[in-house]
Amino acid sequence: MREILVADDHPLFRDALKRAILTAWPNALMHEADSVESLQALVDAHADADLLLLDLHMPGANGFSALVHVRSQYPGLPIVVVSAHEERAVVARAIAHGASGYIPKSASVAAIVEAVRSVLAGGVWVPTDTSAGPLQPAEADAAARIAELTPQQFRVLAMIAEGLLNKQIAYDLGVSEATIKAHMTVIMRKLGVGNRTQVALIASHLAIDDAAMPQGSA
After folding, report:
1. Alpha-carbon span 141 to 84, nearest angstrom
2. What count of other Cβ atoms lies within 10 Å of the Cβ of residue 34?
């Protein structure tokens, strides 16, 4: 019996993905997440799942950051990115960051099933003849450093990238500001930087330009 994880913050699209999967694997066990925080709990609880379908744009994610972080924690879990981005450069970057497949949100049910079937068989599936060239050195370095963060440190990093202050992050996470300052010290050490501006800069290397996205998509 297949066990598939679906992480997307849009309920209607999560439902569409589930229905597509169930057309080919009627008995599949499907588990859902709608944010990076709930995704972390999901992969922790289902570390032996067969596949993760991952949206790039969810609360707590910044471009490829969630892909990089989950990939580092669970290297044996195949990840297929599902995104409204259809640019070849974005597809290539996702594969270079460790995704086993890339499904555009405009894909048909048949294409979704084909992609999932291919990845479950150990292959890599992309919508075009895109080849995964090497990442830019700064992006590859940022990914390697971010991969070293713990889940809580990763959440703090994502909030810093959103421009939140320490006191705002502390409030949202339900911890003291001193705890956030302690996290910041470790995050800066792991990222090899000296201030929060540089922390945000490291995170920005994994960002995606949303200008090319279809309006209203994610």
Report:
1. 26
2. 18
Which two structure tokens, joined as six digits, stand for 39? 């995704």
Distance of CA 21 to the CA centre of its chain: 20
> In sequence order, what are the residues at sequence separation of 6 or more whose Cβ sits closer than 8 angstroms to the Cβ of residue 177?
166, 167, 170
Alpha-carbon gap, residue 49 to 21, rounded angstroms: 14
Closest CA to 87 of 69, 70, 106: 106
Cα–Cα distance for residue pair 145/160, rounded to 1 Å: 16
Compute the distance between CA of residue 82 and CA of residue 105 in angstroms, rounded to an integer. Answer: 6
Supply the pTM of this predicted model: 0.85
Who contacts 207 (Cβ-Cβ below 8 Å, separation ≥6)? Answer: 62, 63
39 neighbors 7 (Cβ within 8 angstroms): yes
Tens digit of pLDDT at every position of the chain (218 positions)? 899 999 999 999 999 999 999 999 999 999 999 999 899 999 999 999 999 999 988 888 888 999 999 999 999 999 999 999 888 889 989 999 999 999 999 999 999 999 999 999 999 999 876 666 678 899 999 999 999 999 999 999 989 988 899 999 999 999 999 999 999 999 999 999 999 999 999 989 999 875 444 444 44
Cα–Cα distance for residue pair 126/88, rounded to 1 Å: 10
The full set of domains in the chain, from first to last, is 3-120 (3.40.50.2300), 137-204 (1.10.10.10)
Say whether 131 sits in a helix, a strand or coil: coil
